[in-house]
Amino acid sequence: MIAAGVDIGSSTSKAVLLNGDDILCHSLINTGAESANSACRTLDEALERAKLSASEIGYIVATGYGRVIVPFAQETVTELSCHARGANWLFPSVRTILDMGGQDCKAIRCDAAGHLENFTMNDKCAAGTGRFLELMARVMGISLDEMSELSLEAKAELRINSTCAVFAKSEVTSLIREGKDRRDVLAGLHSAIAARVYNLLRGIGVEPDLVISGGIGKNIAVVRKIEERVGLSALLPEEPQIVGALGAALFARERIMLGKE
Amino acid sequence: MVTSTSAKKHLQTTLEVPALRKKYYAESLQQGTNRKVAWCSNGIPSEILEAMDINAVYLENYATVCAAKRLSSGFCRAGERAGFSQDVCGYARILMGYLLGGEEAPEAPYGGVAKPDFLVVNSYSCDSRMGWFATMGRTLNLPVYVLDAPYQPQGGCTEDVNVIYSESQLEDFVAFIEEQTGTKLDRDKLREKLDLARRSHDIQVDIFEMRKAIPSPMGAGDAYTIVWPGMYLTGTKECDEFYQRLHSEVSERIEKKIGIVPEEKFRLLWSGLPFWYNMALLNYFEEFGGVVAIENAYFRYQKSLPSQHKDPIKDMAISSTMRRPYADDIEQRAEITLDIVRDYHVDGVILAFNPSCRLMYVLQPELKNVLDRHEIPNLSIECDMADERTYSEGQIKTRLDAFIERMLSGRK
Q: Which residues of A238-256 are buried (b: 16+ CB within 10 A; e: fewer)?
């Protein structure tokens, strides 16, 4: 029996299909304006890749900000619990998860079984989120991938005082106009994000191992800065954006197993 | 955006409060021209005003009425247009918006409040409102009296000094009112009011004590409503009878083991003020078997002191130096909260951070530290208590849902 997890985030929608202990496949699409529609599209895409039909799915759990409007989900579980469960499945030694998504940033603590123990999230602020990085990339006229690559080539680190998206945009614009090397500006920007998320992590206490998930986990420059701050090497999932959907699929698998009992 | 508003009430007696409140505001508006009207802050002793036949209008309460009726956005915008920053207390912005009007200001609930002859503000608990009342006084060109309450650091000042100072302040307050009305305070009448108020207060303390029961006989959704008569009808027979009926109902629920939910799975403490525009949030946990069993903002924990002096003002001065749940030393506040967690069998704490409430906002981080040290699960959520524009349904519900999952997983 197939277990499905669907994660409707503010930027991207993800689906993971599980058969027992095997991840059959995953999908990842932009959420767009219609969350319910993107939920259908991402699940359809995953089913198509796995060459399966919807009737073969035994249970579906939805997560993410759009979880309550997933029309076909049998249950919803928050992304906090799903990230804990998903990260634990990928890395059983994990005790702390930093999920850096499109709209928010979460610091999560879990136990050895992947149960949520504690969490904290950024409040009404874009600092340290995907949206913040997208805005800065646009200001600097580069792609998100280039941000990471260029930052790693920096010779110095220029200080960015604010992680407020509005103020940081002004600061970055001023530094670029002054003719500063954009690689050094980027290093400063990534460092400012690391400082910000480190405060979130401190709020719950960091216990190794640390896993970084979410779209920003793909930005190695940010990951390195966070590792420096925390003083720990982070474990990185191969596809950091599907950890929540994987956790949801694991919850779905649990429900199927409970049903069999 | 807020999608729900008023809390579901589980007790029949609670359902009497909206009518009492409506009647109170209607009478106040009607009597406005016959009696002197005082615009008051919380903490101004209504017994003195009642004994001197003053029509007291408590503005913070009126702000919560505006918020509960979903009118805070318009009033706040009107207040902000007049130059008040969004960082200023939500209650103050609502009332400044009400006072100054303008196209942003909506129609006032209950037809508005009676126009004041003077303003009185208490300095205890919050400093912002002294500036707010001073501004209203200047705007209306009316006298403003500040009733000063001594700060009570732990071990920092002796009780005697506080009592002497409080007595002098109360006497000065009485002199101010006498000057405004041209009549002397009838101290026997004040004594009668105080005796009645003491009785109502003590019944409330008993009711709060009874809320330790499992299952919870009364949750915060009811509790934030039932404190209203005790705060604004103090010293009246109506108030006394209300609490007697409530006491009977709570006793009956305990006897019959009637809880808020069919099977109580976890009990919460709500720390700080509620979000008046979305009181239904207090019921949110109920479908998952959770109950907000207790709250610390209007906690009634200590019975009245017996009358010790012939002069009622001396007794009031002594009472005013008693431990107050959120007005004193931060360590005392933390201690009270830990006592509540233990005595009310609390499994988790919701810390409501209200950025515009300086009193509550500075308290919560230290409370969080204390709760963390004692390994008591807690969740911080940030919203203004009155300005509903600060509320984000998705953000709040995600945090609450995750906290509920944590509670139900049985781990602490």
A: ebbbbbbbbbbbbbbbebb
Residue range B304-324: mean pLDDT, rounded: 82
Residue numbers in A near B392 (CB within 8 A): 124
Chain A residues in contact with B374 (beta carbon < 8 A) = none
Measured distance CA(A26)–CA(A7) in Å, rounded: 11
Residues B262-282: what's their mean pLDDT?
95
Sketch the domain layout of chain B as residue ranges: 13-409
Q: Are A217 and A237 in contact, with CB atoms under 8 Å apart? A: yes
- Contact criterion met (CB < 8 Å) for B402 and A119: yes
Average pLDDT over residues A202-217: 92
Question: Is B409 within 8 Å of chain A by CB?
Answer: yes
Closest CA in chain B for residue A103: B395
B392 in A contact zone (CB under 8 Å): yes
Distance CA B59, CA B41 (A): 6
Query: Quick one: A19 exposed, middle or buried, by C-beta within 10 A (0-12, 13-18, 19+)?
Result: middle
Which residue range is the domain that position A167 belongs to?
Answer: 93-236
CATH architecture of B13-409: 3-Layer(aba) Sandwich (3.40)
Q: Which residues from B are below 8 Å from A115, CB to CB? A: 409, 411
Of A110-119, A183-192, A203-212, least confident by mean pLDDT is A183-192
Same-domain check for residues A259 and A216:
no
Same domain? For A210 and A256 the reply is no
d(CA A120, CA B399): 9
> What is the CATH number for A258?
3.30.420.40
A226 lies in the same domain as A100: yes
The DSSP code for A121 is E
Are A65 and A98 in a shared domain?
no
Closest Cβ opposite residue A124 in set B377, B382, B409: B382
With 60 as the cut, is the pLDDT of residue A196 above it? yes
> Does the distance separating the beta carbons of B402 and A116 come in below 8 Å?
yes
Q: Which of B377, B392, B402 has its CB closest to that of A81?
A: B402
Same structural domain for residues A138 and A174? yes
Same domain, A125 and A145: yes
**A30 and A54 together in one domain:** yes
Banded model confidence at residue B187, pLDDT cuts 50, 70, 90: very high
Q: What is the DSSP letter of B322?
A: S
**CA A68 to mean position of chain CA atoms:** 19
Q: Residue B322's pLDDT is what? A: 67
Q: Using an 8 Å Cβ cutoff, are B151 and B328 in contact?
A: yes
